[in-house]
Amino acid sequence: MSHNPPVTDWVNDFDHTDQQWTDNPFPIWDELRTTCPVVHTDRFLGVYLPTTYEAVKQIAYDTEHFSSRRVVVRNARPEITMPSPPITSDPPHHKPAKQLLLPPFTPDAMKKLEPRVREICNELIDDFIADGACDAAAQYSKHIPVRAIAHMLGIPEADGHLFVRWIHEILELGVHDDAILMKAAHEMNDYFSAHIAERRSHPREDLIMDLIRAKGPDGQPLSDMHVLGSLRLLLIAGIDTTWSGIGSSIWHLAKTPADRKRLVAEPELMPFAIEEFLRAYSPVTMAREVMKETVISGCPVKPGNMVLLSFPAANRDPTMFSDADKVIIDRKENRHAAFGLGIHRCVGSNLARMEMTVALEEWLKRIPEFSLDPAGEVTWSEGTVRGPRQLPLRLG
Amino acid sequence: MQGKVRLHVDPSKCQGHSRCKSLAPELFDLDEYGNAREAGDGTVPDDLVDKAYLAKSNCPELAIDITED
User: Fold this and answer.
1) ipTM for the predicted complex
2) Predicted pLDDT at A32
3) Global confidence as pTM
4) Looking at the partner chain, which of A103, A332, A337 has a beta carbon nearest the beta carbon of B33?
């Protein structure tokens, strides 16, 4: 729940943690887009919000005026003590830090992980299918990315409840309370420090080991701070994002029987449907910090402010996408920006796509008929990542 | 089709979204970082021309060019 006063003027005083935005942001973006490509609020110490594809694209490609050193809009802007490279890196430090992480996330690497993800999905379905009902967010979509990233990092899948708590504390509660964020970040550091120490004495093959062995551009091993920062990033970025993508897709199919039936009958449409769900229900809104004064789509932006880089709003821009407000599961032309644009393209995008595809395929194979439970309530996460957190369904 | 169709990936624009590779695997190769380049010399066989245009219209970075002689 937002700690701020409710918004009464979205054009001049927006708030991405307002309950109205959390429940249904789409009409808000549509209203703002017709008013001005880039609006401003004094909340959160000053933030701009672009809602057109063109403005979002211009900012995403402009690393001179916009820094990634802060990527979440929050109530405070304390000194940066714990960077998470490469997501918080600017050129020239960004490229070498990102290249370390790219090889383990190529499409070929994801094919090797895919069988384990299929097993995970089926283990989860086994647990609730006989009940005839489930919470598809809490019992299904949430656990798939948690277990997949744990598998890649070589950490126990059973620790997933810790990861989910840290992410909630960092990306939701931490937006309003710096102490909660720092406590969670320190707990993550302690957790990963123990795993690093364990691998130094007993080497094994996993992503943590890869980072311990990696060398920076100077030929030296990465600092502990770099390794811990990248591990925090992989855990934070790898979980509720994909959890949200899977959950929003299942939510759409639960309330749209025609699309559900069509996807069951024509499974070859799945790659197009996945991209359309990513466009229409993009989970992730990143942020940038304005470093130098510039003009975006005719709107002056000034240092001292943050920018809420809304890829979700850009993906609903009717000048970029025909019928932008409609979900068209066989949409053929789809240059959506759900994974960002430019140098900060999501390093885990191939993982996310694979997890979403496998999660929907395995679900539809075993549960072709399902609908929203009218007795239950769908609730949504707040702020940086958007996705259902409660998704009660009737199965069959 | 009229003449020879060729595609080219601009390496300075590609950010490794991999959309082209998944839509038209015959026409693109990926390097170790997942960045794409055209397979071979970029010549598109007649039966894959539609796939080439599909890949182009799904590249978020506008990194794919197609030319027809």
Assistant:
1) 0.96
2) 97
3) 0.96
4) A103
